[in-house]
């Protein structure tokens, strides 16, 4: 190794486990990600893992297939903090009425760029759109703010779980 190269040591799994929580967190209820119109169960599993990493909860609709998708996607095999939502629009209205900030993760004209999104200082709900049609128009009216992740490639959008994970990290103040 040349004298200018820093020695980089990859932390082994046993050491990483010692640094992590022994149990999953109970509901911190400060940061929630809300994929309220999900299509693919695999994306819910990916988001669940990010929720554990940043200390967030997930709000999902009571679709019949969702509990099974969450059970399959919960690769950490620990209880996850999940809020069940019967009526997405009514739920969003109640979140706002009770003082939460509702942030839409969406490619929208009025959106702030991810780098300009401050960490959540009050209870915050990050709303994700449907994998094909995005956040429905009726729900856009219920957002306090929209955030967009800039893209320079040919694709028109990111995978919803990737987009949600990036925004969660930013809101949690970990990026
Ligand atoms: C695959 S995208 C939906 C795109 C859909 N074809 C449309 O035109 O509305 C699914 C969701 O991922 C999120 N998303 C994907 N890329 C994003 C980006 N670059 N910035 C913000 N949100 C994004 C949004 O929540 C979006 O509703």
Throw out a few tags for this protein.
175 residues, Alpha/beta knot, binds S-adenosylmethionine, 6 helices, 17% strand, alpha/beta, seven-stranded parallel sheet
Give an overview of the whole structure:
- The chain is globular, with a radius of gyration of 17 Å.
- It contains six helices and seven strands; from the N terminus they run αβαβαβαβββαβα.
- 29% of the residues are buried.
- The protein starts with 12 loop residues before the first helix and ends with a helix.
- It has 175 residues and is of the alpha/beta class.
- The chain has a single domain, classed as SPOUT methyltransferase, trefoil knot domain (Alpha/beta knot, 3-Layer(aba) Sandwich).
- The model has no long low-confidence stretch (mean pLDDT 92).
- The chain binds S-adenosylmethionine.
Tally of DSSP helical segments: 6
**In percent, how helical is the residue content?**
25-40%
Query: Into which percentage range does the β-strand content fall?
Result: 15-25%
Hetero compounds: S-adenosylmethionine
Q: How many domains?
A: 1
Instruction: Write down the secondary-structure element order.
Output: HEHEHEHEEEHEH
Overall mean pLDDT score? 92
What CATH first level would be assigned?
A: Alpha Beta
Total beta strand runs: 7
- Global structural class: alpha/beta
- Widest β-sheet, arrangement of strands: 3-2-1-6-4-7-5
What do we call the CATH homologous superfamily? SPOUT methyltransferase, trefoil knot domain
Radius of gyration: 17 Å
